Each structure stands twice: as structure tokens, then as C-alpha cells.
UniProtKB/TrEMBL annotation:
Pfam families assigned to the protein according to its UniProt record, in alphabetical order: DnaJ, DnaJ_C, DnaJ_CXXCXGXG
Keywords: Chaperone, Metal-binding, Repeat, Signal, Zinc, Zinc-finger
Single annotated GO MF: unfolded protein binding
Annotated signal peptide: 1-21
Domain CR-type: 143-226
Record's protein name: J domain-containing protein
Length: 374
């Protein structure tokens, strides 16, 4: 009886722990509990774009988007994260005291600022790095993830962007007394002076000077760094489509890092597939006999599947065959564009006398044939 009672209490205890724990926000953002603030931002940036209802029409995408936003809200705020780590989601909800839930779409808009170049705060930001980026047309057709690297400046990991060997090496400027400005007098008229205020030449207006510079960055505050990133190439992505990597530009102690913008274009290969919006263009070479007598061929598409083309009659040089629904995928839509096959007829460089005679006979008109018989 006692054992049965203890077992029941143990089960109830486990249930209570589960309820108090609530959802695992770290798992929702695909992070571990030691994730940094930057890691949390990157995870939210990647997942919120992936599951945003405007881009992802799959069932359950909107619910996933809301859950991702709730996890980001909890973990991006240091105080909320501390409460969550100690008491779980239920403890966090109790702390907030039933406050009105934030609109997840407002959080998304605030995070991305409505697109690069449109910020809603007054924080000084670094320049936006814009780069042309070429991918294989096959990747745009099928969708793919492409790894790439960016060389940029990041804050020195030794001095954390101060430029000093240690915190104790950052001193008050002796010239301006820490004000960042130098006060002087300038004579306007004999016996009349005006006070002047200029930026302190020693500290450049910062009010602080460095007694001993950081040996790791030589006082530059930043170091060279090669960042590794992954570009999500979406099916049917338009030529010149811009993908923004928020806050991944050059870092500085003077500003918040700007964005990296990739303008994605498909690489052009001589003699290969060509793209125009949702249409795909291919040039197929056929022989004279095929042009005259008809043919059937298979073309290997960008994803490897075979497209059968056949033309039983005469094919004129430059003739274009339209094959429906074999073009590029419609970006953020359904279906495909069309495929256009242009035919190039190759003539022989040399023909034998026997072939010449046969061709003359074959192409002889009725009038010429009667004249020949006479």
C-alpha cells in the first residue's frame, strides 16, 4: 500500500516538473544552453525567415513561427533568460504576470527593420557590404544551400574592442580632463575675447587615452576574421535577388555592425542552359537528315530528369519548340514556367559525288524531271 502510494506521488511529481518546465526554448531555436546572445540572434534570423507565413505556406508553419518568436523573446532578454533557466516557461509566465503577448509579426519587423537600410532606432551602424554572388542555375532550379566565406573585421577578442592591454590601461585624458573638448580663448577685438571649444587633439574627443595598447591587435581594436556562412538558395529565386545577413558586416567599437547583402545571380555557361525570368532556354543541334525526316531525343534537365522532344516533320533552322511546365519553378508560388528549345541544323562540310547525285534527284522539280527524261 505504501509502495503504491509512493509510486503515485512520484508520477505526480514528474508531471508537475514537466508542467513547470514547459517548452524547451533552446530546442525550438536549435541551440544549447550555453548559446551566446549572437547565437540566439542568428538562430532567430534563420528560423523566422524559414517559417514566416508569407514565405512558407506549409501547414503548421505559422504556429512554428509564433513558437520561434516566443522562444527568441525569452532568451534574448538577459533577465527573462535567467528566470527561464531557473524556473522554466511557467516561472517566466508567472514573473510577467499575464502581460499582453507581443505580436510575433511586430517582433519580426522590429528585428529586420522592414529590410536593410530601414532602421527604427538611432544606433550608429556600420556600412552595408553589398556583393554580387553567383550560384549554379541547377541550384536555383532545385533549391540548395551554398557555403561561402566573408573576410571582415571583428572586435579584438583580447581587449574586446577597447584597444588597451587591460581595463586599467584606459586613463582619463590629461589634456581635456575627460570632457573630450579643449576650451580656449580667441581675441575678436582689442580687449575682447571669445571662448572657443574644439575637439581635444590628444583623445580625439573620447575623453580617454590608452596608456598601454593591446598587443593582440596593436591598439587597432579590431582584427581580421574569415566568417563562414550558408546561403539558402530558394527554388526559382529571381536574378539579382538580395539576401540580407543582418549585422554580419565589419565590426567596430564605434558602431554596431552593418549588414552583408548578397545579390544572387545564376552563373552563365557557354552552350548551357539560359534563363529569362521563369523561362528556360536550350539550344539543340540536329543533323540535316533529322531536320528533314524528323527525330526524337531526350534532353537531360537541370535536376537530371529526362525531357523527351520529338518532331515528326521538317524542322527549320532556328525553329523554337515550347514545352509547357518544364521551365523554372515559380518563386514563392506554384508550378513552373515553360522551356524553349531552339534548333540548330548542322550541314555537312563535304558530300560525296554519289550523295550529290542522289540529292539532286531528290530535290529535282517535276519540270526538271520531265526535261531530263526527254
Amino acid at each position: 500500500m505504501a509502495r503504491s502510494l509512493l509510486s503515485g506521488l512520484f508520477v505526480l511529481l514528474l508531471c508537475a516538473i514537466y508542467v513547470l518546465g514547459g517548452r524547451n526554448f533552446y530546442k525550438i531555436l536549435d541551440l544549447d544552453r550555453s548559446a551566446s546572445e549572437a547565437d540566439i540572434k542568428k538562430a532567430y534570423k534563420r528560423l523566422s525567415r524559414k517559417f514566416h507565413p508569407d514565405r512558407n505556406k506549409a501547414e503548421g508553419a505559422e504556429a512554428k513561427f509564433v513558437e520561434i518568436t516566443q522562444a527568441y523573446e525569452a532568451l534574448s532578454d538577459p533577465q527573462k533568460r535567467q528566470i527561464y533557466d531557473r524556473h522554466g516557461e511557467e516561472g517566466l509566465q508567472a514573473h510577467e504576470g499575464g502581460q499582453h503577448a507581443t505580436n510575433p509579426f511586430d517582433v519580426f519587423s522590429s528585428f529586420f527593420g522592414g529590410g536593410h537600410g530601414q532602421r527604427h532606432d538611432n544606433v550608429r551602424r556600420g556600412p552595408t557590404m553589398v556583393s554580387e554572388f553567383e550560384v549554379n542555375l541547377a541550384d536555383v532550379y532545385t533549391g540548395n544551400q551554398v557555403d561561402f566565406m566573408i573576410k571582415k573585421k571583428i572586435l579584438c577578442d583580447h581587449c574586446r574592442g577597447s584597444g588597451a592591454h587591460s581595463d586599467g590601461d584606459i586613463k582619463q585624458c590629461p589634456t581635456c580632463g575627460g570632457s573630450g573638448v579643449k576650451i580656449g580663448k580667441q581675441q575678436i577685438f582689442p580687449g575682447m575675447y571669445a571662448n572657443t571649444q574644439t575637439t581635444c587633439p590628444q583623445c580625439s574627443g573620447k575623453g580617454k587615452v590608452i596608456a598601454r595598447v593591446c598587443k593582440h591587435c596593436n591598439g587597432e581594436k579590431v582584427i581580421d576574421h574569415t566568417g563562414h556562412y550558408t546561403l539558402d538558395v530558394e527554388k526559382g529565386m529571381p536574378e539579382g535577388h538580395e539576401v540580407v545577413f543582418e549585422g554580419e558586416g565589419d565590426q567596430s567599437a564605434e558602431w554596431e555592425a552593418g549588414d552583408v547583402v548578397l545579390r544572387v545571380r545564376s552563373s552563365k555557361v557557354a552552350g548551357g542552359w539560359r534563363r529569362k525570368e521563369s523561362g528556360l532556354y536550350w539550344r539543340e543541334t540536329i543533323s540535316v537528315s533529322e531536320a528533314l525526316l524528323g527525330f526524337e531525343r531526350n534532353i537531360t534537365h537541370l535536376d537530371g530528369h529526362q525531357v523527351t522532344i520529338n518532331h515528326p516533320g521538317v524542322t527549320q533552322p532556328g525553329h523554337v519548340m515550347v514545352i509547357k511546365e518544364e521551365g523554372m519553378p515559380i518563386f514563392h508560388g506554384h508550378g513552373h514556367g515553360d522551356m524553349f528549345v531552339e534548333f540548330n541544323v548542322v550541314l555537312p562540310t563535304v558530300i560525296s559525288e554519289d550523295m550529290r547525285t542522289k540529292l539532286q534527284t531528290a530535290f529535282m522539280t517535276d519540270k526538271q524531271r520531265v526535261k531530263e527524261e526527254l
